[in-house]
Amino acid sequence: MKRLLILLAMMLSLMISSALCEDSDVEVQLDAQHVAFSFAIEGEQYAYVQVTTENDVGKQLLYSENGQFSGAMALPNCFEPSQLTIDVMKLNGRRVYRHTDKTVEVISTDAAAPQDESVRPAAKAYDVNITMTDGGFDYSFNVPGRDEVFLRCKSAQETHTFHLYADKDYTYSGHVQMPFTFPYDTVTITILTANSNHQLFKDTYTAHYTPLPAVNQAAAGRLKGVVVCIDPGHQEQTKEETVRLAPNFKKTTTTTVGMAKGMVTNRRESIVVLEIGLMLRNALLKEGATVIMTRETQDIFVGMLERADIPNNAGADFVLRLHCNNRADETVQGIAIYCPYQSSYAMEVADEDTYREMGNILLSAMQETTGQTKGKCTLSNNYVGNNWSKMPSFLVEMGYMSNRKEDLLMSASPVYQQKLVDGMVEGIYELSIMRGLIQE
Ligand SMILES: [Zn+2]
User: Fold this and answer.
1) Cα 232 to middle of ligand 1, angstroms
2) pTM of the model
3) Predicted confidence band of residue 108 (pLDDT cuts 50, 70, 90)
4) Fewer Cβ in 10 A, N or C end of the chain?
5) What is the CATH number of the domain that holds 7?
């Protein structure tokens, strides 16, 4: 069946013939339903690639230590030769290369299964069952009287249109992989007639998310005895809350319902900070620390005061409150760390100078690992979670989602996420020594 062919191609197989183009700055190898590419950009560690055919769009962020990049992409809908364009961009959005080509034809002898031709073609799909899986979805449906349809799936990262042939009784079923779609992104699935593009079905789904499982805490490690609370900011659904700003303040504050959203990736801040938060949890556990999370899923509500109560009740030594920044000016970038200073709880933790010094230790450690030179540490009374914490509490804005480059790095690069994590672990280590919790 053609469906099986789709699956094979999606798994990046079928290394048959190849057409090598040496007259371009991008070296491209085209096989059936598959393209591999390599190129060099001197002095760059990251490159953003977009591959477009008549029916597929895929986006990929590549990392390289030395400016030599390579990657591959499935072209699941390229049965017939199609125009192919590969655009290579730096993180600032500037296009470095464009390569155009033709995809390789797939020879197939498949045809639709024999059907009962007396059935009138239906105007909608029936019994549509879509199950989101890690990195894709399963589908099954039924379109009486139609032995072929188009199935289109679209996220911010990729778009594919599949030409499907019915099994007997006009039923359709199979699996589609969407390897570039981020967990919790919106996926729009449409079923169309193959001849006239009439819409038979359309709905939106949330890409599947499996939270990173916790590793075992190391029996020994340089952070043994240190208790860290990680507070990934926001959550999937926000509620408005009004609370007292600090224990010794009369002033109240009301939650701002909004959160940052990636200007290129379209990702929501709440899921990006959760992903990085779970990576941070594992990195700290590996160093022997005890870790408390204020949340480990998207589908939970954690109130503003709860974000301080949780570390207070657990007797945490530090709180890292993870956020991504947002600014109308898209050129602004850098790491911003906020510490409390006039709340009565904060004043018991440390005086202003000490708090600023602690914030700067954390900032320097993160700048060291990420290479991000921009950023600053600020004392502020504006953050409830900081003000109500009875231990050093840092609101860490890891970068700007409104900045193209930082959005791609924070939201789409596990390599950069790990660098942020490494910096925070190093910061916690140095702060633990400073606070006398451990010996150097
Ligand atoms: Zn935030």
Assistant:
1) 9
2) 0.91
3) low
4) C
5) 2.60.40
